[in-house]
Amino acid sequence: MRIIVMSIAMASMLTLLLGCSHQPNPIKQLSTGEQQILIPERETDNRMSDWNLTSSDAELYIGDLGVEQFYAPQQVRSLAAQSNKQTLLPNGFPLIKASPNPDIPPRKGGYVENVIETAKSYLGTPYVYGSDRLDPTSFDCSDFTRWVYLSALRMDLPWDAKNQAAYVEALSKRKYTDLKQAKRGDLLFFTSFRGNRAADYVSLDPSQKTITHMGIYLGDGKIIHSASKKTGGVRIDHMFFKHLQYRFVLGGSVLE
Where is the NlpC/P60 domain (predicted)? Predict the structure, then answer.
């Protein structure tokens, strides 16, 4: 009886294995272009490109627009800066160049690797619009980038995307509007989400490209950023052939 039972079990397993071995691989049935888009998304998930999710995700449309109004002390700093004839950021804070703390040793590859390692340590941190800039338990997009540079290198950058972009515009020795020029550790800035297609952005003139989102470039077409609650807080996404590529406005280094 034991032999009969074992024979039946082995036959069932063989049938199952043969059946699985003949299942078509969905990736191989796709075109090369489709593979290039879908395979990288499976490194995380496809939430940032899922229209059923993104179309109803208010935080993607808003970004961190308006966050600066949460910080009233800027008015005092603005008056002080004006009296000293300092250059001001759009929010009224004085423009002050930040540099890595010399007591922090650069990792192999330079300070950029300090930034990348710190950024990745926050993967999955929840998204909160207007998050507390003194508490790393939640982030919006600009709080995330600021906290990464502050934690990794003691570089205190402005507190929202628009003002971090102004900082890069004013002080970066390497800035660009072509995403292909991005290098590891750069800050990347994006306009508001309007859809998943290139056609949703091509007709916009510069005045319509308000910067409302940002992240840190990892290289190989990847960005680490915090976009919204629905997309999962701090995450890694591929940018090319997706709305992040179409939304790109400015990039630059704050380490050069």
Answer: 109-256
Q: What is the dihedral of CA 145, 146, 147, 148, to 10 degrees?
A: 50
Residues in the chain: 256
Q: From CA 213, how far away is CA 148, in angstroms rounded?
A: 16
| CA 18 – CA 210 distance, rounded (Å) | 56
Q: Of 173, 174, 145, which is closest to residue 160 (Cα–Cα)?
A: 145
243 and 193 in contact (C-beta within 8 Å)? yes
User: Mind listing the pLDDT tens digit for each residue in 29-65?
Assistant: 434 454 444 444 445 688 998 999 999 999 999 999 9
Domains of the chain: 31-252 (3.90.1720.10)
Question: Poorest-confidence range of 21-30, 36-45, 97-106, 220-229?
Answer: 21-30
